[in-house]
Structure formats: C-alpha cells, structure tokens
Amino acid sequence: MYLLEHDAKQLLARHNIPAPQGCLLTQPTAVHALPAGPWVVKGQITAGGRGKAGLIKKADSSADVVARAADIIGKTAKGRTVNAVRVEQQVDGASEAYIAMMLDPAAAGVRIIMAAQGGMDIETLPREALKTASAAPDVAALTAAAEKLAAAFPGVAGKALAGAGRAMAAAFLAEEALLIEINPLFVNADGSWLAGDAKFVTDDSALSRQPQQHALLADVCAAYVETRLKDAHGCDYVVVDPEGEIALLTTGAGLSMMLIDEMRGAELKPYNFLDIRTGGLRGETKRLVNVLKWMREGRNVKVLLINIFAGITELGEFSRLLVSALKDVPEFKAPVVARLVGNGMETARGVLADAGITLHSDLDAALAEVRKHLGVKQ
Amino acid sequence: MSLPRIDRSTKVILQGISGRAGRLHSRLMKEYGTNLVGGVSPAKDVREINGIPLFPDCAAAVKATGATVSVALVGAYDLLDAMREAVAAGVKMIVTPTEGMPVHDALKAKRLTQDAGVLWIGGSTPGMAVAETAKLGFLPDVSLKSGPLGLMSKSGTLSYESGFRLAQRGVGTSVWIGVGGDPVKGLRYSDLVPFYAQDAQTRALLIIGEIGGHDEEDFAEALKAQAFAKPVFALIAGKTAPEGVAMGHAGALTYGSHGGYAAKRAALEAAGVTVYDTLNAMVGGVAEKLL
Fold first, then answer.
1. Which of A159, A364, B154, B282 has the smallest CB count inside 10 Å?
2. Strand B127-130 versus strand A39-43 pairing type
3. CA of B165: how far to CAs of A306, B139, B169, B179, in Å?
4. Nearest-CB residue to B140 (from A2, A106, A342)
C-alpha cells in the first residue's frame, strides 16, 4: 500500500529516519498541537504530484495554517479526496539531495538510487547526476552497497547520504518495503539530515506479519480503503469513478482491469473494479451481499454488469448464490446484466432466467443490454 | 526434457495435495494428462489422494518417483519453506500458484532457485500448460487448444478469456506460461524470449501484460537483443487504473510514472510488437496472422 506522507514519516521515524517536526490535522481548526513555525501545510493523499495539484502551501502564522488547511482539506486530486493535512516546520538553509531504495525484480535484490540534487521529479535530472547500485536483500549487503554509493558524493552530501542509506537499508528490510524514496533529503552544513518528503510503498502480502503497518488500516484519514476491504473481506474492490454509472461484479484482476479499459474506450462509465474471487465464495452469499451493499454507495449507478469467466468455478452454483444475494439486498434496485462463460453455463442460464435475468455468453451482447438500460443510443 | 516444455512423461509432484486446492487441482491436472506421480502432505492417515501416492516430504517423493517438477499449493507464508524443500530434493522446476507470497520472501525464493539452477514459475501464477498434453496449475481445459501461439501472461482470468476466444476462432497455443501477477517473480517475460525463439511449435507470441513494474519494458529489450523473428502481439490491462492502488494483483500498482501503461505500450511498439486495445481486436489480429 502506498502510504500517506504522514504515515510514512511516522513509520520511518521508528527506524531512525527523522523528518521535520509536524502533526496531522483532519480539521482546519485544531491547531494547538503545532510545532514552532513557519510551516508547510501538505495535503495527504496516496499519490504523487501534490505540489502541482495545489496541495502543498506555506504558512507564516497559525491563522495562515488554518486558512491553508481549510483550502486543502476536501480537495480532490488524482481521484482521491484530501481528508487531512500534515503541518510541518519549514526547513531553511539546508541543501537538498535524493535517496531511494526499491525492488530490483530482475536481480532479486534492492536497487539504491542517490543524487546530490533533490526536490524535483527525479526523472527530470540528467542520468549522470544519479548514482545507482543493486544489492542482495540482506542488511549487511544493502548497507555496504549504500555506503559505497554515498562515498562517491563529496562533502556533507556524501556524509548525509551514507547515514540515510544505513538507516534506510534497515527500514527497507524490516518493513518489507517495495519502495522508500526520500525526496528531498534535507542536508545541513554539519552533515545532519532530515526527510523532507517520503514516499513509502509497503507489501500488502506481508501485512499480516507487519503489525505497525496493519495498524494503519484504522487510520483516521481512511486512506487505505482498498487494503482494508481486502484484509477484512478477501476480495479486491476499488471505486474507480465515484460518478460511474455501471457497477461491475467481476472476477480476476486482469480481466476486470481490461473490461474497465474497454468500457471507457467505448465511452461507458464503470463505477468500480472488483476481483470477487469466485473460488473463495465457498458456497456462501456473504461476500456477494457485501459487494452489492458497497455498490449502493454509487449515486449514479444505473445498472449492474456481471462478467465472469469460470475456468474452475461452477456457474450454476454461482448463479444460485447471486440470485440469493440479490434477494438479501432488496435495496439494490439497479437492473442486472449477466455475461457468464464456462462450466455449468446451461444450469446457470435456467437459474438466472427464473430470476428474470438473461444470461449472455457474448460480452458485446451484454454491453448492448447495458446501453439499453442506460438509455444510450446503440 | 527441455524445460519449461513439459510432456506426458514429465514426472510431477504436488506439495500440499491434501488441502482443498490440492485435492481439486490434483484431480483436474491428472484428468488432463499430467503425469502426477506423488503428493506431499503431512497427513498421516491418508495413503493416496485421487489415486496419487502420498509422501511425507519432497525428498521422499523425489527419491521414490524421480519427479523433476513440483507444483506447490501451500499457504502464502509457507511457500518459501516449501520451495526450499523442493530445491533441496532436487527438482528442476517449481510452479507456485499460491497468491499473496510476501515480496521479500519472493526475493529470497528467486535467489534460491537461481543459485540452484531451478526454474521457478510464479508466484501468483495461474500455472503453465502444453495444450492437449499436460498442465501444471489452474489453467481451464476449455481455453487450451493445441496450436502455434506461445502465450505468456501475468493475469489468470484475462489469459483464460483470451485463450478461450482464440480457441473458438481456431487459434491454439503451444506453450502457455502464466508468469504471475507478483512484482518479484521467478521467470519473467524477458527470461523466456530465448525459449520461445527456439521452440519449433511456436510461430508467434502473445503477451498479456498489465500495469506495474518493468516486465513489459524488459521484455521489449529482450526481443531486440534476441532479434526475435516471430510476430509478437500484446494486450496490456490497466490503461485507466488509478495511481497508488494495487489492482487485484500485488504487482499491478503504479506510482507516478513508475509502472504506467504509456511507457509499456511505447516500449513494446518500439520493439515491433502489435499492441491491441481490446480483446476482440487482439483475437481478430492474431487469427488473421496465424490462420
């Protein structure tokens, strides 16, 4: 999961990676906990490019902080709503460097990247400004590689990068990170350093054995909705467009993503991504009932499209569960269009017909019925 | 035997055969023609499952059967240990369909298999198959028709649907390899380019990719390095997916420009790959080229 900057900094602080003093505000009023100013007010969303999106502003007085926070909280950027700001002490007089560690899937290791300049998008830096190395995923190898790489930078930058590299190596492995990027790394004249910004991506698959990360799911900002749902319900559900018109009941990540892309390409507006994992239903309607209830939150949802390719799952049984789940959620009133292919299709056709649902085997035919319900001309 | 090409003489064991998935898929694999010679299970009161003899550990199973391939259907947090056991027992290829292996475990597993010269397909792989011969993992029979198209996919379902529609159009597959949806995997698309280049049955190659990571870009580089002479087609899912959210697969996560759709498409097209926007267009394009 892609952590909010505030959560990333809290987690990094446990591994001796300090950041400027700051606090989290979910309301633009509660300012008693502020560190000494002046400040930067930073909107918290799980995506980059926050500066360009107007989510990072400076503030000189506490009244300013409240005004900036009021501006930023509630804004939407990259499809995410800002539910909180981190108010942080401004850092003056420091130079800015760059350090990151990320997976190296080809070498089965960890890639380290360092630069003496930071603060901007790293991809805009000339290649020769970046120094990079790959190391084995153990503390000794990763620390040694980071120190060696830092030694190529003269002066205080090298000293700071070495220190940050040592701490980051330990953090990366202990937290089972996929990416940790500190950009900028503030470097003071004495070689001391602070994390100016932090991008931290953790591994959802390791969540059950990372209690500190698991605790973030209860985060006040509700930033990790998708991971929380998966953790609690065992399926992947992402609202891709809160204004979307077509709820999707689908299985399989790749097929569901592709369906969304194709629908958008055809100017249809899907509401959600879903990998229900039919193999995990185990004869119970619970997961289907939950999903139908979540879909009711889509205020523009006008139709439900079911798209299942069943290689192993028995579609007759799936259809019985579906019809039963729809009965259990009578408040879900949108018409249902079903496209099912695979094992037990003929049984499924009968079960659905009894519930007034036509089974399509062809996706285009199903989409034509979706359009009919939306009142779109064919 | 030229791995990863398997046939009906390839001896296979299944780790975790007494679990729910193990029981189901050992039966389905066996019915398809896979030479499943043993199962590994701690169950003490059972001698066989689906007519397949059980062994207490990999070493015993390999010693008794001469198996060279293992399919591991164990829990995500037990997978690394299961792979260590299989490698120590001397198998030459391991297929791991289990979803949710921690990524740092996958880093260790990749080093382990590489150092031992063992091929690893996974994690989160739907499996692999030589159509109408044998399969390892979950690939549905209805999508498997023998033919000239090599197929590699991160996704299970999107490849099932693709294989099914292609089969309906009369296009079959040669060697189908689900590389899996995890960020760190054993065999990546790029590793398999030399294999498909020399595989005589394969006349063209389809890769089903998705957002996240750099596998598609590295594959494009490998095609160029190989001067790959067969036609290559691609579908890439996740063009319109939001940033910062793992879309079902742990690997399908973009942040900033990292792992985005545009770079993948550009890299593939620069390597001469035909990239399609829809399943229908892909099926039509591939059929036109191969039929």
1. A364
2. unpaired
3. 18, 14, 6, 20
4. A342
Number of domain units in chain A: 3
Q: A249 with A297, same domain?
A: yes
Tell me: do A103 and A151 sit in the same domain: yes
Portion 259-298 of A in contact with B at CB < 8 A: 260-262, 264-265, 273, 275
Cβ-contact A151, A161 below 8 angstroms: no
Name the β-bridge partners of B55.
Answer: B40
For residue B123, is the peptide bond before it cis, meaning its omega torsion is within 30 degrees of 0?
yes
Residue A11 within any structural domain of the chain: no
ipTM of the complex as predicted: 0.94
Residues A84 and A107 in one domain: no
Residue B186, token pair as written in the block: 């054993």
Structural domain includes residue A39: yes
Judgement on whether residues A150 and A192 belong to the same structural domain of the protein: yes
- What per-residue string of b and e applies to A23-39 under the rule 16 or more CB within 10 Å gives b? bbbeebeebeebeebeb
B227 with B194: CB under 8 angstroms? no
Which residues of chain B, if any, have pLDDT below 70? 1, 256-257
Q: For residues A362 and A267, state if they share a domain.
A: yes
CB-nearest partner of B242 from A238, A255, A341: A238
**3-state DSSP call for residue A127?**
helix
Q: In this structure, are A246 and A367 located in the same domain? A: yes
Tally C-beta pairs within 8 A across A and B.
Answer: 184
Of B191, B171, B187, which Cα lies nearest the Cα of B136? Answer: B187
Domain that holds residue A161: 95-208
pTM of the predicted model as reported, rounded to 2 decimal places: 0.95
Instruction: Reply yes or no on whether B104 is catalytic.
Output: no
Same domain assignment for residues A368 and A255: yes
CATH of the domain at A42: 3.30.1490.20
Name every chain B residue with its beta carbon within 8 A of the beta carbon of A256.
157, 247-248
Contact criterion met (CB below 8 Å) for B182 and B251: yes
Show pLDDT as tens, one digit a residue, over chain A (378 residues). 999 999 999 999 999 999 999 999 999 886 777 889 899 999 999 988 899 899 999 999 999 999 999 999 999 988 789 999 999 999 999 999 999 999 999 999 999 999 999 988 777 888 888 999 999 999 999 999 999 999 999 999 999 999 999 999 999 999 999 999 999 999 999 999 999 999 999 999 999 999 999 999 987 777 898 899 899 998 999 999 999 999 999 999 999 999 999 999 999 999 999 999 988 898 999 999 999 999 999 999 999 999 999 888 889 999 999 999 999 999 999 999 999 998 899 999 999 999 999 999 999 999 999 999 999 876
The residue from A89, A114, A146 where one domain ends is A89
Instruction: Tell me the CATH number at A322.
Output: 3.40.50.261
Closest C-alpha among B229, B252, B251 to residue B240: B252
CB contact under 8 A, B240 and A264: yes
Give the pLDDT of residue A29: 81
Among candidates B24, B157, B211 on the partner chain, residue whose Cβ is nearest the Cβ of A252? B157
CA A62 to chain B, closest CA, distance in angstroms equals: 32
The CATH number covering residue A162 comes to: 3.30.470.20
